[in-house]
Each structure stands twice: as C-alpha cells, then as structure tokens.
Amino acid sequence: MYTEKVMEHFKNPRNMGEIPDADGVGTVGNPVCGDLMTIYIKVKDNRLEDIKFKTFGCGSAIATSSMITELAKGKTLEEAMKITRANVADELGGLPPVKMHCSNLAADALHAAIEYYNKKRKAADEVKK
Amino acid sequence: MSTLKRVYMDHAAGKPVDSRVAEAMLPYMKTFYGNPSSLHQFGQEARKALEDARTKIAELVNAERKESIIFTSGATESNNMAIKGVANRNKDRGTRIITSSIEHMSVVNTCKFLTTKGFEAVFLPVDNYGFVKLESLEKELTDKTVLVSIVYANGEIGTIQPMKEISKIVHSKNAYLHVDATAACGQVPIDIKEEGIDLLTISSNGTYGPKGIGALYIKEGIRVEPLLHGGGQERGLRSGTENLPSIVGFGKAAEIAKNEMQPEGERLIRLRDRLIDGLLKPIPYSFLNGHPTRRLPDNVSVRYSFIEGESMLLSLDMMGVAASSGSACTAKTLEPSHVLLAIGLKHEEAHGSLMFTLGRQNTEEEVDYVVSLMPSIVKRLRAISPLTPKELNK
Asked: Which residues of B touch A31 (CB under 8 A)?
C-alpha cells in the first residue's frame, strides 16, 4: 500500500518535536477527521533555520509531515511557500489515492506557519513605524 | 539472521481453512465432480454429499430440518436474500424494516436500498456496550413491521445480543426476525428453536470453511423471494449449480465447530482476557470497546487516546503482527467505523481503536508477544502526536 520511502519516514520521522520559541506555528486538520498536524518554524535572514512537526494521524500523515520538514529546511520563505502537496507526495514516491487529500496536509501546515510569521512581522513593523 | 515472528490476529477479516476441511473438499474437485441435479450415479454421489453438508449445518444451529438451509455465495448474499427476499415477498404484512445501528454493511446498505423501493427502514440505537436498546425496539415495532434484522454478535466489538428477549418482542407483533450470525456462528452455541430465530445468516469462513460460500436458514412457512432466478436449485430459492467442493468444506467445518466449540471457546476466552489485560493495564488512557464478558471469545477491541489506529497497525505490522482498526484510514471511506460511533465513541476515539480477533492457531506465547510490543508503539506515536498531554511524554 505504501512506498518504501513512506514507510522509512514513518519509522524514522525527521525533525519531530516542537520549537518552544518558534517564530511561526501552523496547525491544520482536525482530530475528528483523523489527522492533525502542527508545524513549528524558526526564521533567520528570511530562511527556515529550523522546522519541526507534531502529527496525530495515519502513517502517511506522519510521513508527509516528516518529508515537508526535510524539503523546507534551509529554504527561503518564498521558496518554502512554493512547495505543494504534490511535491511532498512525489518526493515520497507517491501516496495511495485515498490518502492524497486527507493525509497530505503538511504543505498547508507549513504555509500556515509562514503566513503566521509574516503577519506577526508585519504587525511588529507597523508598531515600529 | 533471525526471522521475524508472524502473528495473525485478524480472524474476523479472514480465517484459514482448517486442514481437515481442505482435505474433505479435494475429492469433490477431482473425483466426485457430478452435478447434484443429474440423475446418473455421478450426480447422485454429488447429491448425497450436498445433503450431508446441509444436515451438518442444520445441526450446528439446531434447525428443525435440513431443508430449511439454503446455500448461498456467502454472508453478504444471505443478508441480501433474507432482507430483500422477505420484504419483497411479504409486502402484504407491512413495509417497515427495523435493524440496528451496528450491523454489517451488507445489512445497512440493503435496508437503505429498500428505502428507495417504498420500504421504511429504522436503525435502532445501541448502548455504550453495543446492546440494542430493547425499549427502542418495542417503541419502533409497529403492526406495519415485516422484518427485524439484528446481528447476533457484532464482529468489531464482539457484543452478543440477548436474542431470546429480542425474539420475544419481535414476535409479539408478528414480525419476522432475521439474525446475522456471521461473526458468532461456530464460536458460540446458537439454537434457532430455543432462541426463536426465523432467518439466520451463516458464514462458512467464519467456521474455518472456505470463502465464497454461506447459508441462509429460513424457517418453514416463511415466504422469500429469490435473488437469483434460473434452474430452480435450492428449492427454487437460489438457482445456479451448487458449489459442491465448498459446500462439502462448509459442512465439514460446521461439524468440527460443533464438536470443538466448547473447549476451543474456553481456550479463546482465556487468551482474549489475557490479551485485553495486557493491552490495557500497562498503558494509561487505554480502554476496552464493548462488554467485558458478554462478548465473542475471539474479540479484543481496545482504544488508545491521542493516537490513530492505522499508525498502530503499521507499527504492529512491522513487527509481524496482523490486526485491524476502526479508523477511517484503513477503510475505503473517510468515516471511522459506524459501529464505534454507534456505541457513543467520539470520532477521535474511534480513530484510535485497534481490533485483534483470535483464532485456532493463536497461542499464549503469541498473545504475550503482542502485549510486549504495545507499550513502546503507543509511547512512540504519542510522542509524535500534538494531542498527547505533556506529562505522558516524560
């Protein structure tokens, strides 16, 4: 059902955990649907210096979360915003069709975290002015 | 190199064919291949084997006569035949069908289908253990009710229904009682006469017979419209040349189940309770689904908070253990099991459910192996989950 790469990320998830003083946090999904993901980011000089995740969900939910942290780490915020759900699935060697929607939310969580960071920074800039 | 232990605990999904059953079937593929409807000796040999098998199945459930057993292609067909067949043939008795909210999909979807054909379907609620609410049955049972269809024991949570009480209520309004015994048959004694059952779905694989064969018991005098029309086999109720090798296997499986049910049931209950204890006691925020004692001997259904079923299944599978889950993620749909929702679980609780169904070849050693794996699996997944309370991850 799952590719070897999905299983590998499920067994050994990268960047699992929280960042207590994160610059941005993005949560998507709902435990009611069986999937909930939170992405934490640390930004330095417009780049994702650190990124971590926590996920409640099935094997592909955990694997896609892990994969997106690998894809996004070190990228500029603009580059990270361009990572799509399809990129994540492709990098994992594909996902079963039924999982493409429900358990492939990692890109959305990353984008939410970056948007949160951008909003926070904008607000801070306004205050400075 | 050590080979990975392989432990199969998903018997509700599929059972191995007992080797004595497989052996009994072989001659009916190669030697006795006649058609039971044929007059010649080849046909008559086949006819005798067919009727012997029918007798054994009738004996397993204490049917009043073997002719009341009709062979089908399995429990799904039996459920379809019972519900559609009774409803369509007895419209003069009423157009209301009552069932429960924890039925197999072959009952649920058949009842739903009939609502598009002028029938009315009522899905009775169950309590937190999964027992059908008898006061709801009494309330919903009108003079217009033609059929009540209730599962003998649900395969996901194992809860065994009080069939005698249900039967008494159903017959007080002259409705017919159909019982789906797919999960229960061969595991616990079923007595059609004593329990007052009018139609009974029996599965072959459920009793360690081959897949693709089943039976429907129909009490004498109940009119049923056939699903399949043709050459008039099975008293005109189920046309098509009989699948003799499988029927012979089914008969052998029923015979073995009848003879060995009591000691095997007691053995399974010991294993079941050992597994339940081992899965729950060492792990906080873990719960049993269903009733602690009034449950099928093979059924262990538990749930763990803050984590999801499929990721537990994958983790177990990596260690060679086959189980199943009520989570949406293992199904074709995105909804978690309707059975777990019906017993009052929240969606996230249903997603965190795990089911083990034991079988003849399972041992105490295997139970202990599974028990030894679970704490670290749960701990790891809880460490990944954002829902886990902080103190649990220490």
From this structure: 347-348, 351, 387
Retrieve residue A123's tokens. Answer: 């607000």
pLDDT of residue A32: 80
Shortest CA distance from B329: residue in chain A: A58
Question: Which chain A residues are Cβ-neighbours of B328 within 8 angstroms?
Answer: 33-34, 102
Q: Which residues of A touch B (CB under 8 A)?
A: 2, 7, 10-11, 13, 16, 27, 31-38, 54-62, 98-99, 102-103
Whether pTM > 0.90 for this model: the answer is yes
Would the pLDDT of B2 be above 90?
no
Q: Do B387 and A31 touch (CB under 8 A)?
A: yes
Active site residue A58: no
Q: Share the mean pLDDT of chain A.
A: 93
Domains in chain B (CATH in brackets) are 7-15+261-393 (3.90.1150.10), 19-257 (3.40.640.10)
Task: Examine the pLDDT at B324 and tell me if it is beyond 60.
Answer: yes
HEC states along chain B?
CCCCCCEECECCCCCCCCHHHHHHHCHHHHCCCCCCCCCCHHHHHHHHHHHHHHHHHHHHCCCCCHHHEEEECCHHHHHHHHHHHHHHHCHHHCCEEEEECCCCHHHHHHHHHHHHHCCEEEEECECCCCCECHHHHHHHCCCCEEEEEEECECCCCCEECCHHHHHHHHHHCCCEEEEECCCCECCECCCHHHHCCCEEEEECHHHCCCCCCEEEEECCCCCCCCCCCCCCCHHHCCCCCCCHHHHHHHHHHHHHHHHHHHHHHHHHHHHHHHHHHHHHCCCCCEEECCCCCCECCCEEEEEECCCCHHHHHHHHHHCCEECEECCHHHCCCCCCCHHHHHCCCCHHHHHCEEEEECCCCCCHHHHHHHHHHHHHHHHHHHHHCCCCCHHHHC
The answer to whether residue A33 is catalytic is yes
CA atoms within 13 A on the CB side of B25: 20
The minimum CA-CA distance between B310 and chain A, rounded to whole Å, is: 5
In chain B, residues with a C-beta closer than 8 Å to the C-beta of A57 are 308, 311, 329
B1 pLDDT band, cuts 50/70/90, is very low
| Residue from B311, B332, B340, B346 to probe the interface with A (highest A Cβ count within 10 Å) | B311
Q: What is the value of ipTM here, to two decimals?
A: 0.94
